[in-house]
Amino acid sequence: MKTLLTSLSLVALLAAPLAAPLAAQDPAPTPEDNAIVVTAQRSGAPMWIVETKVGTVILVGEIRAIPKSTPWEPARLEEATAQADRVILGARPRISPGDIFRLLFSGGKLTRLPKNTVAADYLDAAQAARLAAFGTAHKEDYSRQSFLLTSFEMLRKELRFNRDTARDASDVVKDAAEKAKVPTTRAASLRGEDVIDNLFEAPPTDHIPCLLAAMDAVEAGPQVVESRAAEWRRFRIPAVMANPLETALGRCWPWADETLGSELRTIWVSRIAEASAAKGTTLAVVPLRVLAEEGGVLDQLDARGFDIAGPPWK
Asked: Which helix (H) or strand (E) element contains residue 8?
C-alpha cells in the first residue's frame, strides 16, 4: 500500500498560430479600464495582462504549496474568475483503474533503483558521499531508493514545504469557475498510461539533477519555503525563480523531463496562442516557471510584439 500511495503521489505532481499583436490604430482597453483585470490584480498574485484586438488574456503565475502565512487574497481571484468569459487550467493525467493496478503491482519500479544496483553506481564519489551524509543526518537509507522519490522525500520531510498550505491558485479558480458556470478547459488531458510509461522508462541518471537540487534546497534551510512565497507575493519573479526550492522543483520530473516537460510547455504556448484570438477575457492559471523561465511563454509573446503588462520576469 505504501508503494501504491507513493507512486500515485508522484503521478499527481502533474502538477495555432499566435494572434497578431495590437495594431496602433486599433487599441484595446488598457488594464486600468478592465474591471476584471483590476479585481484579479487585487488578489496579490503575480499576473500578466496580454491585450489583443479582440480581448484580454490574464496569465496568473502560479507556484504550488503556498504557506497559509502568505498574505494574498484568493477571494479577489474568485471574483475575477466569475466575471471571465473562459478559464484555462493546467494539464492533468487521466488515471484509469488499469493504471492503478499497474502501479500497485509494478510501483516498485518508481520507488527503487534497478535490481542489484545502488546509488553509488550512478553517482560520482563526491555525490555518493554527500547523499550518504544526508542519509545519516536524516536517519534514512537512500542507497536503494529511487533518486526521484528521495528528492521529494527530502523536500517534504526536511523542508515541510507542502505542510500548512493555503489553496493553490488553480484550486481557487477551478472552484470559482464551477460555481459561476464559467466555461473551463484544461491545457491538456494526458493519458495516465503515457505518464506512467514516461516515469518507468526514465533511467536513474535522469533524476540526478533533481537529487542534487533537492539537497541544495535542504542545505539552504526551511526558510526558503517562506521566502519563495514572499517573493512571489512581492512580484519579485527572478528571485522566485532563483529560490533553491523552486529550482529543485523545476529540475525534477515532470518539468525536467525532455519529453513530458517539453510537451507541457508546448501545450501552454498553444493554449495561450488560441486564447489571444478569442473575444472577451480569458483567465489562465499557468505554472510560473513556464511563464518566466528563459525562452518561456512570456519571452515568446514578447518576441512577437505582444503588449504585455505585468511585473518584470527577467
From this structure: helix 2-11
What is the pTM for the complete model shown?
Answer: 0.83
Whole-number Å distance between alpha carbons of 211 and 132: 12
Query: What count of residues does the chain have?
Result: 314
* Cα(28)–Cα(30) distance, integer angstroms: 6
Look up residue 64 and give its amino acid: R
| Count of C-beta atoms within a 10 Å radius of residue 141 | 11
Would strands 55-62 and 92-94 be described as parallel, antiparallel, or unpaired? Answer: unpaired
What confidence tier does 92 reach under pLDDT thresholds 50, 70, 90? confident
Beta strands in the chain (DSSP E): 47-51, 55-62, 86-89, 92-94, 184-186, 189-191, 280-287, 307-309
Q: What is the distance between the alpha carbons of residues 161 and 155, in angstroms, rounded to a whole number?
A: 7
Residue 53 DSSP class: S
> Which residues make Cβ contacts (< 8 Å) with residue 258, sequence separation at least 6?
none
CA distances in angstroms from 181 to 57, 81, 98, 143, listed in the order given: 19, 10, 32, 50
Backbone angles phi, psi at 30, to 5 degrees: -75, 160
Q: Amino acid identity, residue 287?
A: P
Question: Are 271 and 284 in contact, with CB atoms under 8 Å apart?
Answer: yes
Q: What is the pLDDT of residue 311?
A: 97
- Per DSSP, the three-state class of 86 is strand
Q: Which residues 6+ apart lie within 8 Å of 252 measured at CB?
A: 148, 151, 152, 207, 210, 213, 214
Q: What is the pLDDT of residues 31-59, one digit of tens each?
A: 444 789 999 999 999 999 998 888 999 99
DSSP state of 158: I
pLDDT of residue 286: 94
| Centroid of chain to Cα 129 | 31
Tell me the three cell numbers of residue 279. 473575444
